[in-house]
Automatic annotation (TrEMBL):
GO cellular component labels: cytoplasm
Lineage of the organism: Bacteria, Bacillati, Bacillota, Clostridia, Eubacteriales
PANTHER family tied to this protein: BROAD-SPECIFICITY PHOSPHATASE YOR283W-RELATED (PTHR48100), HISTIDINE PHOSPHATASE FAMILY PROTEIN-RELATED (PTHR48100:SF1)
Protein name: Alpha-ribazole phosphatase
Recorded GO MF terms: phosphatase activity
Length: 199
């Protein structure tokens, strides 16, 4: 059995977040407002430190890590990048609500329909599940017990929806920008996540 305590932190706000646009593969920086809001949150939040630190490798995640943890070192976990929205990237619901491909994707119950030139939910689920599994094994091999990961709202919300006991929808499980969860992850034949704290 492998287990570890993880601190998942959502990156600070970007211009796409402010405009409520789909933001997955676009490698954009934090907005000016996002930086100011994150600095304010840092004053009022006790972010946990760990020996093992990670980000998704995207600018918005790296910049968030550096604002919170300064010059602490981190490694990249590309499997925790946000969902790839393909042709829907940078667009809003209102831009897409009459697009037949978009309607098919949001109404898909199988998880197999891809965003054009992007991912399907099934592909995304498998990607982040593999990354979580590999991460927990790595942490245990290094004989550590904790790790910090700065990544994305969709990644965090989906992991909690898939592997915790909560019955909430992934969208409601996404922390606010700069917020996150302390969780315990246990792998014993399958993955189980226990939510310990939201911050």
């Amino acid at each position: 059995m492998n287990r570890a305590i993880l601190y998942f932190i959502r990156h600070g706000k970007t211009e796409f977040n402010e405009k409520r646009l789909y933001c997955g593969s676009s490698d954009i920086s934090l907005s000016s407002l996002g930086i100011e809001e994150l600095k304010e949150k840092i004053k009022n939040t006790r972010y946990k430190k760990a020996k093992l630190n990670f980000t998704s490798g995207m600018k918005r995640a790296n910049e968030t890590f550096e604002l919170i943890y300064g010059k602490d070192k981190f490694s990249i976990l590309e499997g925790f990048k946000e969902f790839d929205f393909g042709d829907f990237e940078g667009k809003s619901y209102y831009d897409l609500k009459e697009n037949k491909d978009y309607i098919a994707w949001i109404e898909d119950k199988t998880g197999k329909i891809k965003c054009p030139n992007g991912e399907s939910k099934e592909i995304f689920y498998k990607r982040i599940e593999k990354q979580l599994n590999d991460l927990i094994i790595e942490i245990n091999k290094k004989e550590e017990k904790e790790g910090v990961i700065v990544c994305h709202g969709g990644t965090i919300g989906t992991l909690l929806e898939l592997f915790s006991d909560t019955e909430d929808y992934f969208y409601n499980l996404q922390p606010e920008c700069g917020g996150g969860y302390k969780v315990e992850v246990v792998i014993d034949k399958k993955i189980y996540i226990e939510i310990l704290e939201e911050f």
